Amino acid sequence: MTYIDWDEKYSLHVKEIDDQHKNMFLLFNKLQDGMRTGKSKEELENALSELIDNTVIHFATEEKLMQQFSYVGFVEHKRIHDDLIADARELQKRFSQGRITLTEKVSVFLTDWLTDHILDMDKKYAPLFRSESSS
Ligand code: FEO
After folding, report:
1. What's the whole-model pTM score?
2. Distance 46 CA to ligand 1 centre (A)
3. If you measure from the C-alpha of residue 77 to the centroid of ligand 1, how many angstroms do you get, rounded to a whole number?
4. Range of the domain at 127
């Protein structure tokens, strides 16, 4: 199973955002635990929903701050958020309908979905958020 450990490299040094990212890692790891220990389909569905629902809330938090701070990359970042959620919802639907099982391949997809986005995209707005938060 793939677990994501929090590491300093993921920190944006913006407390509200770091806390939300940490929580998403915890929810991802909870889903992994469920897969590893053979939890029921219903329990895995709930764990996946919890992860996606928290991600939706997190994206909304970021987008609100980006608009508040007039972040120039807002439109592109929001489009990527929307695509990520659409991909995750599709995965959720297929799993609910019994068309796929949650496998290592799915875990790798979700890991990349979470970590690559933080490292590639979120890091770009971090300096602005930090300076606006401290002013
Ligand atoms: Fe932390 Fe853009 O998601």
Report:
1. 0.93
2. 22
3. 8
4. 13-133
